Structure formats: C-alpha cells, structure tokens
User: What shape does this take?
Amino acid sequence: MRANALASKISNRLLQDIVAGNVALGSHISAQQLADRYGVSRTPIREALEALEVQSVLIRRPNRGYFVADEIPASAQAALAQEGESEADDYQVLAADWLRNELPEEVTEQFLRQKYDWTKAHVGELLVRATREGWAERKEGYGWRFLPVAKTPEAFDEIYRFRMAIEPAAMLEPSFELNHKVLEEQRRIQENMLEMEISKAPGETLLTNGALFHEELIKLSGNPFFLMALQRVNRMRRLMEYRAEVNRDRLIEQCTEHLEILSLLERGNTVDASFRMRQHLSGALKRKSPLAWTWAADSHLTAAED
Assistant: This one.
C-alpha cells in the first residue's frame, strides 16, 4: 500500500476510534503510541496526525505534541462515514459470499479481481481487513486462505453457550485480580457509547467495543487460555455479526448491563458480577437464536450484540 494511502487509512481508523470513545477527547496522542496500536512505522503516523490536524480533529501544541480536540467537527465525522461506505459495501459482499460458500477456501488476488472487477489495491485492502478480523490469512508463498467461521445458527448458539461457560467462571478463578484502571477505561467507553449519538456511530465500532469489554474482563482472570479461547470464538462470530443490521436500541440496554457488571466488580462483588455476566450472555443467546434461524433462511440478520 502506498505511504499516503496507508496514512489515510490510519487517519480514518484513529478518527473512528475517537468517535467511538476508544480514544478520549482531550487526550494526548503520541506517534509511537499509534505506531504500536496500528502496527505500522511512525512515518505514515505522522502524515495521519497532520491530516487530522487540518480537519481540526487534533490540536498540535508547541513542545507537547498532538491532543484530541474537545469536540470533533461534524464535517470530519461526515467525511469518515462517506469514506467507509464504499469499502464497507464491498467488504460485506466478500463476507457474504464466503458465508454462503460461494468462494473457494483458497483464492488468489487475481481471482478476486476478475470475479468482482476490483482494483489490485482494493482487493489487497479488503483482504488485509479480513485478516485483521480473523477470517482470512495469507498462504505461504502465494495466495490467500479463508478460515472457518460461525456460518450456521447451531454454531452461533454453541459459541454463546461456550461463552456462558467460560466468562462467568473466569471471574471466580483464584488468580482473578481486579484492575481498577481497566475497569475505569471500560466504564468510560461504555458511558461514552450511551452519551454519543448511537444512530450515527459505525456499527463495526459499536460491536468492537462490546467484544473489547468482554475480552478485557476475562483477561483479569490471569489465565491466558481463557482470553485466547474468547478471542478465538469472537473472531469466528464476528463476520456474521458485521453483516447484521445493528439493533441500536438493544445496544443501549447492552451498555447498561455492562455498566452494572462493572459496578459490581468495582465494589469487589465478583461472585455477583459472575452471576450477572451469565444472565447477560443468557439473555443475548435467547434474543439471537431466532434471529440466527431467520438469517439461515434469508441470509440476513436483524440484530447484533457483543
């Protein structure tokens, strides 16, 4: 990917993180911090920071560096939404064809270019995103491989039942240790989601924040295998979730339940928090099951949660 194209991608991702509340308004931003966050060198990071400064998303202060503005201009948010529409549509096309078994397990970029009439650069961007989301990987030598995901209602239900088994249990592990900085950060993200205009927030960001909440809490168990298992199943279900029409009313309820769990943990009530987590996941499973059957019938899911 060309340096300026990569810088544009990074500036969009950073803006999306800011809008979603993953990066706090008014906070300091360092080039090295972002390079580590997005896995790139500092050169495109610097270009991305300069671009966001022009849009008044970031403010550069002498001898102190860049800070997120206290208010994000509406024009920048509108530009972000426009930028994402085309790629999101094509990404969903590629995802839908894989879910419907209309693509072979192994493909080349040339095959995808010919099938969809996309440019080489665009195919590369979509495959990189699919890799980041956990359902594609580059083969050794040449070509790409699509990975197994939750394609059926049965698999979707099994994932949630597995989560109901491990997430509440992780809170009861002898090695579980509260980290109030983690709890404070998750509270900030969840409260920000309630305060922002959810109807205008990218659906992908809302779903990512939900998954992050659960992964950060299970990490407190001190047992890396709990986290590895949850991350694995989250990647497997994420593809179907991203195709969904996000039920934004439900997301308000979801954030509220997340805050209830955080409040219990902040008070040291881990047993009650574990029970509330099981209730939370059980409720999600009951709501999702009939929707997943609907998806199986007409290839469309009408709601999504964390």
Observations:
- The two ends are 32 Å apart (CA to CA).
- The first strand starts at residue 28 and ends at 29.
- The chain is about 65% helix and 5% strand.
